[in-house]
Amino acid sequence: MIGRMNRRSFLTASGLTASGLTASAISAAPAVAQVRNANDMIRVGIVGPGGRGTAVMKECIEFGGKFNARVVAACDIWNARRDAAAKLLRESYGTEPRIYSRYDDMLAARELDAVIIATPDHLHARMLQAAVEAGLDAYCEKPMGNVLGETNAALDAVKRTGRIVQIGTQRRSYPKYRAAMRMIQEGRIGQIVRADVIWNEYSPFRWSRKEDDLKALKESDINWKEFLGSKPDRPFDPRIYRSFRLFRDFSSGIIDQWMTHGIDVVHMLTGEPYPMTAYTEGYNAISKDYRENPDTIECVLQYGFGGRRFMATYATCLANAAGKATRIIGTRGAAEVEDVWRITGKGVNSPEAAKDEPIPDEPGVVHHMANWLDCVRRRDSAGLYCDASAGYGHSVACIMATDSLWAGKRMKFDPVRRSITEG
Description:
By secondary structure, the chain is α/β, with parallel strands linked by helices. The chain folds into two domains: 16-163, Rossmann fold (3-Layer(aba) Sandwich); 174-207 and 246-363 and 388-422, Dihydrodipicolinate Reductase, domain 2, CATH 3.30.360. The protein contains 13 helices and 16 strands. Strand 11 and strand 12 (334-337) form a beta hairpin. The longest helix is centred in the last third of the chain and has 20 residues, at 388-407.
């Protein structure tokens, strides 16, 4: 197994006990791990094996053999998902997994080297902080966090502990995106002046659940308090549990789910860490269900902390599947990704215009999960495709966008104070 040494966590002082992540669960947990040799199994646990979580767990099962990694434990507050995860792991490995209903119990068991976090959006940052403070490496689904204070604390914990943390914006592992990043960095399109991301889909009932599914879920089936985490107490509501992405206290919906990917691509391709300002408008164009979050949004962001000022836009509507397009526009040309995959000088009437050329697949690019497992095995955080700092950047952008949506005002980010204010 991966070696460890014990160290007390500062979990209580950081306030994580409010979400059921107790200091006792962490105090005897492993600290900084070192892989001794290739025969040391990387023992992985997963928290939140729902739809997306199960998909990520299957990826870990698929790629784990190459890196001597195995999913040995699963945790979920819903008994149906615990049973399904246990069945999948039995069928995959032929052995009995450890199954938990509480995250702090799984961490306190001291049987893991790494954890996959695939819980609802509002739990990510606190669970990530708890994992690294328990001495575990982590694969954390996006967004890394959707509350700034919690996201700041999670990033600090990752840096302080030196854990190997991959954030699940997997487009950073797509060969064409990595080729586009290289070509832009080589100056093919000149100075960046604008970025536009459009992701549309016909999905008027996106993330909502059928009434029969909601009625079938009983409070006794889940641990409602664990689900709420740091959120204020409220009566059990199956709509919130099954459709958390529609409720603003738990997720921003389109922003947390899709803008995270789109704006993370902008950060990846331009090298900018996070925006200076963001302004968002949104409303429900066609959705007639119980959602609080809009089905149509547009956000305008300004960048410049990295020294190259440019504007970016992100837009989604769920009323029409008018396609996806991502364009990074420069003074010599544009990189068109997501739809046609090309560098083009069309639109630039200058001898300096870029030559039209396709964006190829970058050689040597591996799957997002394989990249994480490889870096865990080699103890190489520099090799991660989307480390915690990158995850922090897209989280800041999306938190700014969400704050602006509900305040109706432009938000600005102070990278020194790590604060978001109106302005």
